[in-house]
Amino acid sequence: MLKSVILIGGDRKGTRFRPLSLDFRKPLFPIGGLPIIEHHIQACTELKELQEILIIGSYNSSEMKSFLDEVQAKYSINIRYLQEFVELGTAGGLYHFRDQIRRGNPEAFFVLNGDVCADFPLRQLYEFHKSKPKALVSILSTEADRTESVNYGCLVTNKVTGEVTHYVEKPNSYVSPLINCGVYVLSTDIFPVIANVFYSRGENGDWNGNGIKDEGHIQLEQEILQPLAGTEKLYTITLNMKWSQVKNAASAIYANRQALELQRKHYPERFTYKTNCTIIDNVFIHPTAQIDDTAVIGPNVSIGKNVVIGPGVRIRESIILDYSTVDSHTLIIHSIIGRNSKIGKWARIEGTQVDPDPNKPFAKIKNLPLFNQNGKLNPSTAIIGNGCTVSSEIILLNTIILPSKELTRSFKNEIIL
Amino acid sequence: MATEKCQMRALILVGGYGTRLRPLTLSRPKPLVEFANKPILLHQIEALKEAGVTEVILAVSYRADEMEKELKHETEKLGVNLIFSHETEPLGTAGPLALAKDILLTSSEPFYVLNSDVICDFPFQELEKFHRNHGKEGTIVVTKVEEPSKYGVVLYNNDGCIESFIEKPQEFVSNKINAGLYILNPSVLSRIQLKPTSIEKEVFPYMSSDKQLYAFELNGFWMDIGQPKDFLTGMCLYLNSLKHRDPSQLYEGEGIVGNVLVDPSAKIGKGCRIGPNVTIGPDCVIEDGVCIKRCTLLKGAIIKSHSWLSSCIIGWRCIVGRWVRLEGITVLGEDVIVKDEVFVNGGQVLPHKSITESVPEPSIIM
């Protein structure tokens, strides 16, 4: 029997995802027409021996309830949400809920970071882990561009055995092109290792010097994986695959594109349409959305529940969230339109594409800061917050609009509070 | 009126390259650029003909052949004799009068002088009457402007006798400026030498100190349409004037808002919103669901579905793709192609270019 843990963090995390996370819990933000972590759940249900999914985070359980009800009904697998009352970090949460994880004696359990978007190769990862009898943890890794690798956890390996001989989280200088994908399989024997960290810390009292974090706060990467490297207990399987993390809005657009491609491959039945509009693949349209036959949608567009798209509308590389309406002849490119927004006629909402460098074979999407060194907004995905009204004929170029704004004139490269 | 009129003449200062109206003037001499579906020069020649002018002298310094070829046919229809006076070097605003002296002196009647960039409800007959009434050497048409500090203002007494000219006044002294339209007696020619000379600075001040120059106040609109921004403003004013003078010339139909002028050969699709203040030239095609405001589309331009255009001049035979947005005094030269979904703000696009990427800030596209 196997289990899976999805780590979703809490309110303090995902601030880079604002203003979208002001009304959406980031793990529930729809990518490719499904909440981000539903992709994780889908991947878990592909393994017959996987019997339970535990979602660990510090969001209030009431905020997760409707999602849990939905996925419980949809998938024949036990899915539970375990709420941390303080943020415990990536290993602290596992340790806190160790009994829940160990119950039923699973042979091993997966740990999936909630912001990862990939075609989770869980079967391959598990078979690899089984083949390494001494392994406590096996990490899924992928190759990154040399200069970009320093933004991730970097692994140095023994190419023959797959053992991780050195691990460092976000190094200052180049260490290795292999990066941690945030997807692991762990043996339950990991808990005594975490316990050692937990107890050794208690002896030192004010361990982190500022007392902000709970003493049960343990980081899997720095406090567990790093010391395990070179002890023949940490292994990695390196796969070349499309992989990204959803950190900010630009990465949501990129992840949406990847997710649509994967969904299309694995679940083609989700890609049937009631509308006769022109579709340029890949496009997800929720069955309740109404799209005029003269609209042209795609590529890489997700359209949510009850959205209404008028005649002659053009949308590409965008996410349109539930209950929004887009009136005639409007163009939307590289944008995210929040729930309940109303966009007028002949409007233009345009963001700037932020993509991995196509000339670098292992490049990943960069999570650029909001502002550049000159204090100007870095051109990126345009975001219209929930409940905004955009007048006809205006242009919003690279703008970030906070929720409930009424926009009657054009804006360029601005954040509208 | 049954009064026997003498044959009158006019000299139009066409002048140089019209660089301010580039990129349009890279394809056609400025006087031939269509303003409200008619070459700028023809607006003036038709008004002059109406006032009894039978001979028009065009003071040109380049591309005379092209203008002659294009205009001869039109002026013959009107029964106006067109004479080209070719400057070998630019002679300013007065020099061309001296160059055409021999022609102008064959009659003792006063003659009109026009700057070729000026558009208004030309009041030539009233101007002539006013001029003959005061009996002095010359009359300048003056017009009221909002910001006189950018121009030279004209000061005159209640009778219209001009007292002085003040170039770009710092403090407000008057809001009346020289409108670039004059009627002059042939005697004025004795004040001008054949060399580069400014009529405003080197001729008129002397005439006014001799009390020989009067001001005639223009009613209605006036605009110097020598640059794109003013070309569009002038078009708005012209269409508004047309609405009062001859509303039957304006186009009406579904989706038409305000004053819109459409050549009968142009085609407009379904679900469009055109206007206010739009001119659509011959053979233009506007596909379905297009929105156009405050624009001039020159002959043969094609605007594809769902595009939005505001404050633009679209050159001859341009093709604007679908979901394109053009704004901010964008001027497309002849035969420019704008690809689908592109945004151009304040672009000055040279002829025969293809634009595949957005131009969000004003720039010149070579």
From TrEMBL, chain A:
Question: Where is each Nucleotidyl transferase domain found?
Answer: 3-201
UniProt cross-references to CDD domains, sorted A to Z = M1P_guanylylT_A_like_N
Stored PROSITE patterns: HEXAPEP_TRANSFERASES
Q: What is this protein called?
A: Uncharacterized protein
| Listed InterPro entries | GMPPB_C, Hexapep_transf_CS, Mannose-1P_guanyltransferase, NTP_transferase_dom, Nucleotide-diphossugar_trans, Trimer_LpxA-like_sf
**Annotated keywords:** Transferase
Domain (Mannose-1-phosphate guanyltransferase C-terminal): give its ranges. Answer: 279-416
* Keyword hit for Transferase: yes
Q: Please report which protein family the annotation says this sequence is part of.
A: Belongs to the transferase hexapeptide repeat family.
Question: Does this UniProt record's set of keywords contain Transferase?
Answer: yes
One of the record's GO molecular function terms: transferase activity
Automatic annotation (TrEMBL), chain B:
The protein's GO terms of the molecular function aspect are:
GTP binding; mannose-1-phosphate guanylyltransferase (GTP) activity
SUPFAM superfamilies for this protein: Nucleotide-diphospho-sugar transferases
Q: Does this UniProt record's set of keywords contain Signal?
A: no
| UniProt keyword annotation of Transmembrane helix present | no
For biological process, the GO terms are:
GDP-mannose biosynthetic process
Keywords on record: GTP-binding, Magnesium, Nucleotide-binding, Nucleotidyltransferase, Transferase
Q: In which pathway does it act?
A: Nucleotide-sugar biosynthesis; GDP-alpha-D-mannose biosynthesis; GDP-alpha-D-mannose from alpha-D-mannose 1-phosphate (GTP route): step 1/1
Q: Which cofactor does it need?
A: Mg(2+)
> What EC numbers are recorded for this enzyme?
2.7.7.13
A Pfam family per the record: NTP_transferase
What's the protein name? mannose-1-phosphate guanylyltransferase
Organism equals Chironomus riparius
